[in-house]
Inverse folding.
């Protein structure tokens, strides 16, 4: 379970996140949408204990972030916006490091890992991470999280760089994990992904949560009666006048 | 080409200046190249000018003829003989620090990819990458330039200074070209990891070889046939196998000059051509099938850092370089000097080692923040590993020397002091690095020039005021010897302990 109250992040004078309240229940996939620079990544970083909030409170699985940061980090999984792996480690060594540092039960994790490698087509574990392509790193990052099967998973634009098959498998897996009781929080720019996968959607703009709810609830918010998420999203974030701009260009 | 180099340098140094939270170098906007050199060379220039002026004024009172006196049977003048060891060591220092640095900086900087999309020549990019690591080899230059200039002055007065400067400049061009050439050749032939390891090994081997050669031909004054030894020595030091001697000969009026400049220019041209076709992509290394271990292991962060240390040739290199240097002195049976120079170099490198280990975490930020460990658990190995590694090597060195009898037993007392110096220097490097966590970590030059000087200055001070002072206080018959022998070390040691306590307290409350 993820809970946030009055989350604020300031970078100097600039307020990137301006008071966000959230609650994501077990078994739920929460989609976090917003234009570039809206504050999605900043919010995820605060929720995962990567960044300290300027004010506000974060609770994960009932534990407070400022009190039991390490315990929380051990039980959550994070796929950051950019897949970054120590370049001079081989994929296998990186996964081994993750298992060691998270103290995963080996045999169970290893059997899950071999299935995940099979599913995502990861057969490059003996190469150095410095030689991976973007998508290869992304896949390794994803399986390094999924092999631990954490109870809460955060993913920042997880499908970026994945091929069609891997993206499909990831979506199905996340759905399955959620159905088994995991809490999943993800950001995405692919509205189709949000539309199909997410149980609830939050839309953030300029650091403020401007809309939240299931797809149907969001549709009710549209004054212009938009039904599809793309138009709805553009209307809510005040970016609707795309046509005029295209004309002018 | 230089205008392109200037433009790229302007933005890359602007980037570094910005992140250091300082408004400085106003001039860098208008004269980027000039201000770049001013910033990175000022210390070396001051050092070089000091040496030059000191040497010239000292020798002037003697007779200039002595300098130009040609040793019978060799055709080598005393002046040449005098400056050739500087050139020799300067060249070693350059090759030891610049050439590997260029390779790493060229193939390890992710901004190369961006630079390649720009409409600039590839050779300009190579030049920028070579110039960026200037702070690391400026000291080699501070030896090479004065050597030629001094020799030139004693040959031909003020014109000689100019000609000497020119000679040094062309020699530098040759060294640059050679390094760039080596870097590209290595990259063409081998996979990335392999290339780096082999490159490192090759450098070690060649430097060791030079060191051995140097010592083999070094005249032993205690031997009776010292004239013979001198002849052998001068023949070696000014052997045409070493490119620096071409310019020496040219300077003393032999017309090797033209041939050597011709060869140099050819080399520069060839390397420029090569680097303009340089392939920046990396070839894949050989894959060996592995398998997972069946159980978890303790100390994952230490293990990982050790693995990364082992895989990073620059870090290995910094571990071994002080040993190589100590060897130079050891072969001359100068045990105290050997241990002193080992500690000096080690103190300089341990801070950088720690910073480069920390850099690994920053390269993949924010991933390390998602690990279920405290900041402390992540940072501590980066301080412990260099300290332990350098201290262990020193301890072995001293024990070996004690065993052979090259060192007196009381010098074993140096071990705890040296461990403290190494620990403090490592901590200093880590602290300076962490003080400004948002520094650009993409390239290998993680420290700004000011920071490099800070690390080097403070650690040298610590070394000099302890080991140096004690040894001097013992060796010299001086009425204030107790000042050196007791007071300076005590002050220095207390300052280190104070620094360690204060900094570790500061770092404990550190948050990224
Ligand atoms: N370290 C930082 N220092 C200063 N400002 C920052 C920092 N990180 C983010 N910001 C600012 O905070 C705002 C939100 O950034 P954030 O990365 O959260 O956006 P985002 O919603 O993830 O965007 P995108 O869709 O492009 O990933 C931006 O205006 C950005 O400039
Ligand atoms: Mg983002």
């Amino acid at each position: 379970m993820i809970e946030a109250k009055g989350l604020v992040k300031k970078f100097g004078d600039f307020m990137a996140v301006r008071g966000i309240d959230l609650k994501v229940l077990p078994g739920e996939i929460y989609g976090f949408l917003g234009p570039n620079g809206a504050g999605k990544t900043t919010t995820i970083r605060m929720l995962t204990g990567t960044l300290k909030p300027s004010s506000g409170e974060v609770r994960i699985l009932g534990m407070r972030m400022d009190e039991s940061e390490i315990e929380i980090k051990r039980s959550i999984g994070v796929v950051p916006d950019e897949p970054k792996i120590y370049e001079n480690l081989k994929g296998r060594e990186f996964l081994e490091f993750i298992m060691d540092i998270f103290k995963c039960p080996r045999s169970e994790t290893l059997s899950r890992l071999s299935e995940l490698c099979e599913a995502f087509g990861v057969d490059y574990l003996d190469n150095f991470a410095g030689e991976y392509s973007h998508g290869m790193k992304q896949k390794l990052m994803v399986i390094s999280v999924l092999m631990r099967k954490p109870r809460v998973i955060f993913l920042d634009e997880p499908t970026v760089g994945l091929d069609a098959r891997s993206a499909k498998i990831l979506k199905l897996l996340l759905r399955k994990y959620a159905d088994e009781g995991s809490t999943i929080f993800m950001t995405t720019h692919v509205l189709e992904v949000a539309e199909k996968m997410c149980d609830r959607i939050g839309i953030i703009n300029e650091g403020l949560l401007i809309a939240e709810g299931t797809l149907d609830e969001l549709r009710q918010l549209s004054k212009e009666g938009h039904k599809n998420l793309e138009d709805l999203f553009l209307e809510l974030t005040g970016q609707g006048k795309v046509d005029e701009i295209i004309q002018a260009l | 080409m230089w205008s392109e180099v200037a433009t790229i340098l302007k933005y890359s140094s602007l980037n570094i200046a910005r992140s250091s939270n300082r408004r400085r170098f106003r001039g860098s906007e208008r004269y980027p190249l000039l201000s770049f050199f001013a910033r990175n060379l000022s210390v070396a220039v001051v050092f070089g000018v000091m040496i030059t002026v000191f040497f010239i004024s000292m020798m002037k009172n003697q007779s200039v003829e002595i300098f130009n006196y040609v040793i019978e049977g060799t055709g080598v003048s005393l002046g040449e003989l005098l400056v050739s060891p500087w050139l020799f060591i300067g060249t070693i220092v350059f090759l030891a620090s610049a050439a590997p640095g260029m390779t790493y900086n060229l193939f390890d900087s992710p901004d190369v990819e961006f630079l390649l999309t720009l409409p600039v020549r590839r050779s300009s990019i190579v030049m920028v990458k070579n110039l960026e690591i200037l702070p690391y080899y400026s000291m080699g230059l501070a030896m090479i330039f004065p050597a030629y200039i001094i020799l030139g002055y004693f040959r031909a007065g003020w014109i000689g200074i100019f000609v000497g400067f020119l000679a040094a400049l062309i020699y530098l061009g040759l060294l640059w070209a050679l390094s760039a050439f080596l870097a590209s050749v290595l990259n063409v032939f081998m996979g990335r990891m392999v290339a780096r390891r082999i490159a490192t090994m090759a450098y070690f081997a060649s430097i060791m070889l030079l060191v051995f050669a140097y010592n083999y031909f070094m005249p032993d004054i205690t031997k009776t046939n010292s004239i013979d030894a001198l002849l052998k020595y001068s023949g070696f030091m000014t052997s045409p196998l070493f490119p620096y001697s071409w310019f020496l000969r040219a300077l003393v009026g032999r017309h090797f000059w033209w041939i050597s400049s011709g060869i140099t220019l050819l080399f520069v041209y060839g390397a420029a051509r090569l680097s303009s076709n340089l392939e920046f992509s990396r070839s894949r290394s050989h894959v060996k099938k592995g398998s997972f271990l069946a159980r978890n292991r303790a100390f994952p962060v230490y293990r990982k850092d050790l693995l990364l240390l082992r895989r990073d040739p620059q870090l290995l290199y910094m571990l071994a370089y002080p040993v190589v240097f100590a060897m130079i002195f050891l072969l001359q049976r100068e045990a105290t000097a050997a241990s002193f120079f080992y500690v000096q170099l080690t103190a300089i490198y341990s801070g950088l080692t720690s910073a480069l280990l920390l850099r690994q975490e920053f390269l993949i930020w924010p991933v390390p923040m998602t690990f279920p460990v405290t900041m402390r658990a992540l940072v501590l190995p980066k301080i412990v590993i260099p300290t332990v590694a350098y201290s262990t090597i020193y301890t072995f060195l001293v024990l070996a020397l004690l065993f052979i009898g090259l060192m007196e037993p009381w010098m074993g007392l140096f071990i705890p002091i040296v461990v403290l110096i190494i620990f403090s220097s490592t901590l200093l490097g880590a602290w300076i690095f962490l003080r400004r966590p948002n520094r650009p970590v993409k390239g290998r030059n993680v420290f700004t020039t000011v920071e490099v000087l800070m690390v080097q200055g403070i650690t040298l001070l610590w070394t000099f005021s302890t080991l140096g002072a004690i040894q001097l206080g013992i060796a010299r018959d001086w009425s204030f010897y107790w000042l050196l022998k007791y007071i300076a070390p005590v002050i220095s040691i207390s300052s280190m302990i104070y620094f360690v306590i204060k900094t570790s307290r500061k770092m404990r409350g550190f948050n990224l």
About this structure: The pocket of magnesium ion (ligand 2) is lined by residues A 40-41, 81, 156 (CB under 6 Å).
